[in-house]
């Protein structure tokens, strides 16, 4: 029996395997190569794991359309030309008609970048009061906020081309400049777009306190919120890689939310190269920022800012980041929260770059027209 089994084992197969070599007489058969099977199994596990992860990240608890979450209080950033130059009655009529049609409740009207000392020369926005008056006359109930922006020294900019929020005098002058547009020009509040505000910046919180004290009672205090990061380490790493933008943790989002009336989270310039990835990013950002803002004792209004400008760079690809993909992400993010009471609307950046096709997408996906 032993001799018979040995003879059978040493007899080569009648149909050799593809690529197999017949061993020479007296040599043991070659061991089959298993690494292709191992690699294939690893790839299958990777694909399966990626699919499961994508499914879990994209899963929602409800499936409402965008119109379900629209409450008619959306926002748009308005270019400096409207506060910087005079306009005719017909031009104001056309602007108001578009804002009314698109259910815009907040206008962030650019009144000029801050100088390094925290001031804005009065002659930089000579048409500011006329703009506020024209919009209030045509759209009763609309809130016109003075959009005040500048880059912050922490982003690595030159001192004479940025504001230094560690300087208490600069913070004081910024706050009182903001208050001037409310008291003198008829704005309903101020909208700060100072970037980058790094995670856990205590000086930015000081600016908000100083501004609240300077503003008259009832004036709105609105701020741009940075992108969300899951923890402080991730926020620091992302900031180091892209110093022109910053990321906030839920803790810092809640700290800012406790001091303002409105947070407008800008979820663009994400670097996502594909539409699906951007939509998934917006979904996750919306859901987590909403959770963070809602944790404040008195949650402010939350709006999600989406881009309509075009371009292609390291951190922005308009083929991926646009009105359609952004709105899809917002809707998915809201469907991931059972409590969306703090959510107020979407904010469009910016008016002049929003095409008719963008408005049509917005009307269909968000307004349900």
Tell me the total number of β-strands: 10
Largest sheet: 8 strands, parallel, barrel
Task: Provide mean pLDDT, rounded.
Answer: 89
Order of helices and strands, N to C? HHHEHHEHEHEHEEHEHEHEHEH
What is the CATH domain class of the largest domain? Alpha Beta
Rg over CA atoms: 28 Å
Helix/sheet category: alpha/beta
CATH topology (fold) name of the largest domain: TIM Barrel
Note the gap between the termini.
85 Å
| Tally of distinct domains | 2
Oligomer: single chain
Helical content class: 40-55%
Instruction: Give the amount of beta strand, in percent.
Output: 15-25%
Provide the spatial order of strands within the biggest beta sheet. 1-2-3-4-5-8-9-10
Structure write-up:
There is one protein chain. This protein has 369 residues and is an alpha/beta fold. It folds into two domains: 72-216, Glycosidases (TIM Barrel, Alpha-Beta Barrel), CATH 3.20.20; 226-361, no CATH class. The protein is built from 13 helices and ten strands. It has helices at residues 2-10, 35-58, 66-69, 81-84, 89-101, 128-138, 168-183, 202-214, 232-241, 250-257, 275-294, 323-334, 356-367; strands at residues 74-78, 104-113, 143-151, 189-195, 220-225, 227-228, 247-248, 262-266, 301-307, 343-349. It has an eight-stranded parallel β-barrel, surrounded by seven helices. Strands 6-7 form a two-stranded parallel ribbon.
């Amino acid at each position: 029996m032993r001799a018979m089994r040995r003879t059978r084992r040493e007899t080569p197969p009648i149909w050799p395997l593809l690529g197999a070599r017949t061993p020479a007489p007296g040599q043991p058969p070659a061991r089959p190569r298993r690494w292709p099977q191992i690699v294939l199994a690893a790839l299958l596990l990777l694909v399966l794991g990626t699919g499961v992860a994508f499914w879990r990240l994209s899963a929602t608890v409800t499936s409402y359309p965008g119109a379900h979450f629209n409450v008619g209080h959306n926002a748009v950033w308005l270019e400096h030309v409207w506060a910087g130059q005079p306009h005719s009655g017909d031009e104001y009529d056309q602007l108001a008609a578009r804002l009314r049609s698109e259910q815009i409740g907040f206008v962030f009207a650019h009144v000029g970048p801050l100088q390094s000392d925290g001031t804005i020369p009065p002659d930089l926005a000579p048409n500011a009061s006329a703009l506020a008056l024209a919009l209030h006359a045509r759209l009763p109930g609309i809130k016109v906020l003075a959009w005040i922006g500048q880059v912050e020294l922490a982003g690595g900019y030159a001192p004479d081309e940025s504001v230094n929020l560690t300087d208490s005098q600069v913070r004081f002058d910024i706050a009182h400049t903001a208050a001037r547009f409310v008291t003198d020009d008829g704005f309903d509040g101020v909208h700060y777009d100072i970037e980058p505000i790094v995670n856990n910046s205590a000086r930015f919180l000081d600016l908000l306190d100083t501004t609240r004290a300077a503003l008259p009672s009832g004036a709105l205090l609105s701020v741009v919120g940075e992108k969300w990061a899951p923890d402080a380490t991730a926020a620091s790493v992302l900031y180091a890689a892209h110093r022109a933008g910053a990321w906030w943790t839920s803790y810092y989002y809640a700290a800012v939310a406790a001091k303002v009336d409105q947070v407008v989270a800008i979820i663009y310039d994400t670097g996502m190269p594909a539409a699906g990835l951007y939509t998934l990013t917006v979904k996750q950002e919306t859901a987590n920022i909403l959770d963070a803002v809602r944790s404040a004792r008195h949650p402010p209004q939350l709006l999600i800012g989406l881009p309509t400008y075009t371009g292609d760079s390291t951190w922005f690809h308009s083929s991926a980041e646009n009105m359609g993909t952004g709105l899809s992400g917002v809707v998915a993010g809201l469907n991931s929260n059972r409590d969306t009471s703090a959510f107020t609307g979407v904010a469009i950046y910016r008016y002049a770059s929003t095409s008719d096709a963008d408005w049509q997408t917005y009307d269909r996906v968000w307004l349900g027209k």
